[in-house]
Task: structure prediction
Amino acid sequence: MDCLFCKIAAGEIPSNKLFEDDRILAFYDIDPQAPLHFLVVPKRHIGSAAELTAQDGDLLAHIFATIAKLCAEQGVEKGYRVVTNVGEDGGQSVAHLHFHVLAKRSLAWPPG
Ligand code: AMP
Ligand code: ZN
Result:
């Protein structure tokens, strides 16, 4: 499948990695929107959060626990935001599930 994040997960396209195991990969966003901005993706292709099922519960728990661990390792002390965009109106530009993690500045709400 011609999917950018599948290729990054497979190591076919380079990325600036923070963490990798058999199920997930975390890498820095190429166009950071905060002093700390990384993405976490499952290695298995999932198109977006709209395709998740109850079978993915362990994977999601693993992703969120890893995000918390990575933020602690990166010295995040005042909180962070996890975002996953779905579809055109959601602002999704890469059709492979990814969680943005934004930190180290105060983030506005609501988003634009
Ligand atoms: P979204 O718009 O929510 O689908 O997020 C896609 C994100 O992927 C954007 O924040 C892009 O900056 C980021 N991105 C696109 N290509 C790359 C790449 N090769 N390496 C790292 N991040 C990327
Ligand atoms: Zn993919």
The CA atoms of residues 49 and 97 lie 6 Å apart. Strands lie at 17-20, 24-28, 36-42, 80-83, 99-103. The chain has a mean pLDDT of 97. The chain is about 25% helix and 20% strand.
